[in-house]
Amino acid sequence: MSNSLVYRTRWADMDPNGHMRHSAYADYAADQRIVLLTQWGYDAARLAKLRLGPILFREETKFIKEVHIGEEIRVDTQLVSVRDDGSRWTILHTIYKADGRAAATVTVEGAWLDLDRRKLAVPPADLTAAFKTMAVYEAQPC
């Protein structure tokens, strides 16, 4: 299963300086996480039925190269870490320009929320297993 999606940037993604606004990077990363969940059989309807939702504790974006309107970008997703029970996880999204240069990274730390109890939850075992199929991030030496 691919952990990579290609998008074309839109007018709504731009800021007055003529490049992609800071929050648009996070929007593309979030979209890819939802696409992956859907591919794994956990679309919004199933998550609602399970009364389970993904939440973020931290989101950090590192900006590397400008992205402009109409550019094709590729968003790759890698698993940095996941607890054995799947309850907490860290994901790294790298956003690439069409020429292959990294434009930004978006790192998120999250967990699963029981929507009725409003407490952290352990996801179903098959969802944890699906998370573990993601490409694993391997830090590059400095």
From TrEMBL:
Taxonomic superkingdom: Bacteria
GO MF annotation list: fatty acyl-CoA hydrolase activity
SUPFAM superfamilies: Thioesterase/thiol ester dehydrase-isomerase
Transmembrane segments: none
One Pfam family linked to the record: 4HBT_2
PANTHER family: 4-HYDROXYBENZOYL-COA THIOESTERASE FAMILY MEMBER, LONG-CHAIN ACYL-COA THIOESTERASE FADM
Protein name stated in the entry: Thioesterase family protein
Species, as recorded: Hymenobacter montanus
